Amino acid sequence: MEMVNVKINNIPLTVEKGTKILEAAKKINIDIPHLCYHPDQSIKAHCRICTVEVVGSRKLLAACSTEVWEGMEIHTDTKLVRDTQVGILELILATHEQNCLTCSRNQNCDLQKLCSRFNVLNSNLPDVTEHLPIHNTNPSIIRDPAKCVKCGRCIKACKEVQGISALTYAGRSDKITVTTAYNKPMEETDCILCGQCSVVCPTGAIVEKDDTQKVLDVLQNPKKHVIVQVAPSVRVALGDAFGLPKGTIVTGQMVTALKMLGFDRVFDTSFGADLTIMEEGSELLSRIKNNGTLPMITSCSSGWVNYMEKNYGDYLGHLSSTKSPQQIFGAVSKTYYPEQSGIDVNDIVTVSIMPCTAKKFEAARPEHGRDGHQDVDIVLTTRELTKLIKYVGLNFESLPEGQFDSPLGSGTGAAIIFGNTGGVMEAALRTVYEKYTSKELKSVEFQEVRGIEGIREAIIDLGNTKIKVAIAHTIVSAKIIMEKIKAGTCDYTFIEIMACPGGCIGGGGQPIKSTTDVKHLRMDALYDIDKKNPLRKSHENPDIIRIYKDFLGEPLSEKSHALLHTEYNKVKKAHDFSYLKTEEIASI
Amino acid sequence: MSKTVRFITKNFGKYDVSSIGSYMECGGFDALKKAITLSGEEIAAIVAEAKIKGRGGAAYDMGRKLAQAKSVIAEKKVVICNADEGEPCTFKDRMLLENDPFNLIESMIIAGYTVDAEDGYIYLREEYCHLRPLLLNAIRQARTYGFLGTNILGKGFNFEIHLYSGAGAYVCGEGTALIESIEGKAGRPRMKPPFIKQCGLYNRPTCVNNVESLSLLSHILLDENKEYQTYGMGDSIGTKLISVAGNVKNPGVFEIPFGTTVREIVYDLAGGIDGDRPIRLLQFGGASGKIASSKILDTPYTYEDLKRSGVTVGSGAILIIDDRTSLIEFLQSTQEFFSHESCGQCTPCREGNRHMKLFLQKLADGTHTEKDIASMKKIAKLMAMSSLCGLGETAQSALVSAINQFEDVFHVKSSEVQG
User: Which range marks the domain in which residue B409 is found?
Assistant: First the structure.
C-alpha cells in the first residue's frame, strides 16, 4: 500500500494513498464537521461544511471528497475555515424548521450538534424556511421537507443500498427538494417503507411514524391487558441510545424496562420466530416432496415482501406463505393466548417492538386480523422504545435483569439469530436437517451461511440429497437473485432475503448511526446469545412443542394454515392505504 | 471599422455553410490533412506555441490541455465541444456555428486525432436549436466524404461526432454538469476530483473545449506564416471574438486583436452609447464576470491589463450599462439570473444566492444596515471559497467588484437606525 505524508494543523502523519482529508483527520482525533458525509455511502460533497484550507489551493477544499497528496498541508481550524463553516451552518439554519424542542430527533440531530459545537447563538439572516406539506399518509415513514438540509443521504441510501430510488432531488436552486417522482406519496412510489432513509437522515426530515403516545395511552387504560413482543435484534441495539458500548446485549434490562413501563406481559418475538421455523421448514419439506414452487423464498422481512408485491407480482408463489414472526406472534396472541390465560381477546392489546418501519405497515395489513381486530395493534421501532424508556425516567443501564413471561416468552438460539442476515436460513436448516434425515444435527452452526457479503451460497448435505441455498440482503442483492429466477437460471432450493443491510440488526427502525461497523458488533452479539442458549433448535423449544400439542396440532395443519400463513397480492397500481386500519388503533 | 481583423472569422461568408464541397473549395479539410501527418504531441505543441487560452471563460492553456489529454492512457477517450454558450451577453460561438460550421467539425476531428479520442460530442445550447439542422448536415456530409467514421483519410483513425442538446440550464456549460446532461441525468455538477480529464463522460477521459477554442485549431495548423502571432499585445497573443451588448448603438460580435482598448471597442466598434449617455458600468465576461466603471475605458483588452483593472476576459462578453439603470438594479438583475440558475445541490450556492437576493432588495428599498452589508460580504466570500462548482464561485463576482468600485452606493446613511 502506497503511503503519503501530510500535515494537518502542522501535525505530521502518514496515511494510505487515496485517504480523504476527513478520514485522515480522524486518525489524529480531529472531527471535521460534516452533514452529507456518511461512512457507509459514496461521497456527495454537497453540504460543503467540511471545507478546509490546503496550502497552495485557491479555494477551500471539501475534506470529505478530497484525497490527500504527498506533502499536503491542511489547516482545519483557521479563521477562514471557521467563518466559512459557521457561515454555511447559518445558511442552513435560516432555512430549517427550528422547532427542535418538539422534534423527533431532538438531542439526536447532526445539525443540532454542529450548532452546539460552533456555539451558533444568533444570525443576521432572515428565516426563509419554506413550510411545504408534511408527508404523513403511510403508517411507517413521515417526511418533513422543512427540516431537510438537502444532504442527499436518503437518496443515496435508497439508491445504493436498495436500488429503488424512490427519493430523488427535484427542482433547482432554492426550490430544490428531496422528493418522490411527481411528488407522490411514498406509498404510491416504489418505496417499500424499509426506513433506511430514516436511519441516515442527519435531522428530523425523515422519521418513523411515532406511535409512542398510543402505547402510553393504552398502558394507562386499566381495562386493557397490554402485552408486548420484542424482536431479537432490538436487544443488541437498544443499548446504543443509553451510552452502552455498541452491540451490548441488554435483554434483561430491556425486559425490566418494559415491565416498569406497565406492560402486563413481556413476551419475545423469538417465540414467533421458532413457530415460523416449524411452519416454514415444514413448508419447504412439503414443497420439495410434492414438487411445489421452488426456490422457496423467506417472507419474514416486510420490506422485502412489499418489494415483491410491487415488482415481482408474477413470482409471489416463491414466497413462503408462512407469516413473519411478528404476525405469527400476533395471531397466537389473539387466539392461543386468550384461551390459555382466560383473558377476553377484546381486552388484549398486542404491541410489537421492532427494528423496522415496514413492520408498522405489515401489522396494519387487513389480512392480519380476525373478528374485527388486528393481530398486532401497535408497532414501535427500537428508536421509539428508547423514547418511551426515557419518558418514564428509567436509569436503563442500571436496571436489574428481568425474565420474559410465559408462555410466549421463550425462544431458542435459532430464533435469536433471525436478526442477522443468514439467521433465518441457519435456523431453518437446523430444523429441516433433523426433520428430513431423522438424525441429530451435531454441529448446529452453519458458518457457510453467515457473513456480510450481499449474496452468499451454500450447499447443504441432507444425507441422501444435497440442496443449494442462498442468502441475500439489501434489495440491490435481492434483485440479482430475482432476475436469476425470472431468467430460469436459478438452481437454489431455498433463499433467505432480508431487505435491510445486515438483516434486522441493520433495520430501518434501529438507532441512528447504525453504521456497518456497528452492525458487525450486533451480529456477533446475536450469535453469542445463540451460542449460550442451551436450546438452539426451534423444534426443541418446549413451549413450541406445547402449542402444537395443545392448540395447533401439527405444522401445516388446518389451524396452522388459518392462523400462521398468509397470501400475497400483486400490486398493480399505486398503493392506497386508506383501507388500512391504522386509525382504529388510536381509539383503543 | 478597420479595428477588427479576420483570423478566426476568415471563412465567414466565403462558402455555402450547407455544402462541404463549397467549404473544401476554400481550403476546407486542408488542416485535417496536415494534422494527420503530425503526431498528437506535435499538434499540442503548435497550439501551445500560439499561447491559445481556452475561450470558455477559465482561460486554461489549450496546448497544455491537449497535451494532457493525449498523455492519458485509456481504451476510449472523448472530446467535447462546449457549445452551451449560456453566459449572458455572450453570443460569439453562435456566430462561429452559423457562419463556419464545417470548420468546427474539422477542428473537432483534429482535436480527436490529437488526443486519440474516438468520439466527439457537440453540446449545443438548447436555445440554439435552429442550428441543429445545419450541424447535423455538416456532420452527415463529413461522414459521406470519409472525414468521419472509420479509417479516416486512410490513417486508421476512427472518429464520430454526436450532437446533443440539454434542456437549457446555464449550469450545463460547466464541464461536469454538461457531462451529466449528456449522460441523461439532471444537469448538476460533479465534485472534483475526479477531474474529467481522467474520468469524464461515461467515465472516460474527456477533453472539453469551447467552440471558439476548437475553431482556432484548424486555422492555427494552417497558419504557417504565423499571422496569428502578429496580432496581440504582450502575453496576450492573437485575436479574440468578443460579444458587445447593452446600451450601445451597434451591439455585435467583433474579432479584435488583443490590445484594442476598451474605449475603441465601445465607441468605435459598438458605435458608442445610446443617446450618447454616460456609462454607469461595464461588465466583462458575462453575468459571472466582474464590473468596472468608465475608468477602464483606456485599458487595452488583454488578459493581463484587464486583470490589473480588476476584471477578466471570461467569455469575451462586454456589457455596457448607461446611467438609466442604477447599480443596484443591475445587481438585482444579475442576482435574479443566478438565483434562477443555481443547481441547488450545494449549500453555499443554493442558500447564498437566496439570501443575496433578499439583501439586494433591502438595498433597493434603502432599508439595509451595516450588518446587512457585512453579511453580504461574508456570504459572497464563502460562496466563492466553498461552492462545489464555478457557478457558485463566480455568482457574486459582480457584487464583490461593485462593492470595491462603487463603495459609496453601499454606504448606510448615518441618520439611519443601525440594525
Answer: 327-416
